[in-house]
């Protein structure tokens, strides 16, 4: 009877402990998990699973393990948020596989993506030809984001007899005052040009910029620190 009581208490502690871990470290759907998040989830499940049925592990041991894991996860999440470069290093960066209609063979080779794999990923986006794609980006969670060429956007503007006007594609260039040379692998930015464009818009110091994105039409869109709600 005592064993069942101890197991029951451990289950209750584990249930609320996992809920607290999820609440503290941030809510993410499975599709938003990075490889690091996924491995951390597996490790946490192993910690809880092994302690439930081990008689030598007390409830206090379980609480200590969950508390320490929550603290480490929280500090790591905060570090990736406040230290931008560390965040990109820890969580990875999006990868440009198709840039303005051209295959980025360097990135395809680097990440061992064959053409048949690329086409398979595109078919999941209801795209059956590379000729339809203007930009294709491999996200940090392994999914793919795609921008079609204007003439292939549904419904087709060619079918409607309308002029096809291209959509602007943007890349993050400033994050919390930090200038990013390559926030997306395979898409490099001229940093001096970004600094010059920021000065033209009245930002002599990058510290006044919370976020900025550079569009392929040559425009820099800036969100100042004052524009961001706190």
From TrEMBL:
Transmembrane residue ranges: 7-26, 58-76
Query: Where found, per UniProt?
Result: Cell membrane
Which keywords accompany this UniProt record?
A: Cell membrane, Membrane, Transmembrane, Transmembrane helix
Q: Which residues form the YetF C-terminal domain?
A: 85-151, 170-227
Q: Which InterPro entries match?
A: DUF421 (IPR007353), UPF0702_alpha/beta_dom_sf (IPR023090), YetF_N (IPR048454)
Q: Which membrane topology describes this protein?
A: Multi-pass membrane protein
Coarsely, its chief localization is: membrane
Per the record, GO CC terms? plasma membrane
Q: Which Pfam families match?
A: DUF421, YetF_N
Q: Where is the YetF-like N-terminal transmembrane domain?
A: 4-77
Q: Which PANTHER family match?
A: UPF0702 TRANSMEMBRANE PROTEIN YCAP, UPF0702 TRANSMEMBRANE PROTEIN YETF
The record's family statement is:
Belongs to the UPF0702 family.
- Which protein, by its recorded name, is this? DUF421 domain-containing protein
The source organism is Paenibacillus solani
